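Renewal narrative, Specific Aim 1. Our central claim is that a sequence can be written position by position from structural information alone. The example that follows is taken directly from our test logs and has not been curated for this report. It begins with the structure tokens describing the chain, in the order in which they were read.
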């Protein structure tokens, strides 16, 4: 516990610039002896005071109380220049170990002290510091650090803090580096997952659009089929029947005949001439087509002075 308390004091009050006035009653118990010796080893200027008057007004007054609130549990309370530090400990097979972080009363503390109290990183020479602190207690019997507070120490009081800030002891630097790497990797995974979800949403949009296009294509194909069938029906109806006037061996003669015929019968000029050619090379002079055979016969019958017959188009 003395080693742990010393480590927290080193963190908050740099040894090179701090003078500490510790009560002379510290010489009466193992915790106080270990703490005072550790402060000197760490480079503090330790001034012992009687408790009634401080020997050095420039030194930071340091008081402490170590008690046992319940069997197997200990509590260390340090007071340095009005700032209190409290931590609980428990005993087990491995000895005494902290059961909670340091509770700090930072009311009225300087900005520098607040910054040091909330600083997450250990010093660069953390391992060396730990080794030196362990050496501080090397000559102190374990039982000495656990001796209950003496009657003189019970008389010391610690002002109850108006506000308490709990600062957890940070893990060694390698653990911070490993945690940072894990956090960075988790952030990369989260970003990649977000991109995958965005791509999946885009794919879903494209698939929905493709479904719409396929549906529209099917409708267009159906309409095109219906239109083609309608055109076929119209063509079949339009190419029903024709009126045939004559047949010739050549197309030139057939066309000359039509010109001569329309010159004699101007009413025939209103008809639409056709000159289809058969497989045997015969060119026919026809007019039409007409949708019904009755209509074609009526046209042919109206040409009384001209020979004609009704044929299938």
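The sequence written for that structure reads:
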């Amino acid at each position: 516990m003395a080693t742990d308390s010393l480590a927290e004091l080193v963190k908050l009050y740099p040894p090179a610039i701090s003078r500490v006035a510790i009560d002379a009653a510290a010489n009466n118990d193992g915790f106080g002896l270990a703490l005072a010796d550790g402060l000197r080893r760490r480079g503090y200027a330790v001034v012992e005071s009687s408790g009634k008057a401080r020997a050095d007004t420039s030194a930071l007054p340091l008081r402490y109380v170590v008690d046992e609130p319940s069997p197997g549990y200990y509590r260390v309370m340090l007071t340095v220049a009005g700032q209190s530090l409290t931590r609980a400990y428990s005993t087990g097979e491995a000895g005494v170990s902290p059961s909670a972080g340091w509770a700090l009363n930072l009311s009225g503390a300087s900005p520098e002290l607040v910054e040091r109290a909330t600083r997450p990183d250990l010093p660069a020479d953390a391992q060396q510091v730990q080794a030196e602190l362990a050496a501080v207690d090397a000559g102190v019997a374990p039982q000495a650090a656990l001796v209950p507070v003496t009657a003189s120490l019970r008389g010391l009081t610690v002002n109850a803090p108006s506000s308490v800030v709990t600062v957890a002891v940070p893990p060694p630097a390698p653990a911070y580096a490993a945690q940072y790497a894990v956090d960075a990797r988790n952030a990369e995974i989260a970003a990649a997952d977000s991109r995958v979800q965005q791509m999946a949403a885009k794919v879903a949009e494209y698939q929905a659009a493709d479904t719409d296009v396929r549906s529209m294509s099917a409708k267009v194909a159906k309409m095109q089929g219906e239109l083609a069938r309608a055109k076929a029906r119209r063509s079949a109806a339009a190419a029903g029947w024709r009126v045939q006037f004559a047949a010739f061996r050549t197309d030139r003669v057939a066309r000359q005949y039509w010109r001569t015929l329309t010159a004699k019968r101007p009413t025939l000029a209103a008809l639409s001439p056709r000159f289809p050619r058969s497989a045997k090379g015969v060119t026919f002079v026809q007019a039409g087509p007409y949708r019904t055979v009755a209509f074609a016969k009526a046209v042919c019958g109206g040409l009384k002075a001209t020979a004609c017959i009704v044929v299938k188009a």
